[in-house]
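Revision sheet: structure tokens.
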Amino acid sequence: FRMSNTLVWHIVRDHNSFFRKQASNGAKFSAEAGNLYNRHSFKHSALANPKFLDIQAKDGAVKVVRGSEKNANKPRKVAASAYIVKSTRLN
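Predicted:
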């Protein structure tokens, strides 16, 4: 069984722990991993869309996490990660 991406977005749109709303101008942001633009929208949501990209700096390396549509209904396999380390030989 697989829910549509639109249905997932309508369920989590107003009720998730990553939602941030600015009090001053009412702008909506998201703090979820995989949302590179930090915009609270269906297009940029990693919760609702199986295809996402996340980039993090970890211990002198860059961690790149990519989500795939193939394993969208398998939470353990949905994300594939790789570390990119700067080579000392390139200096």
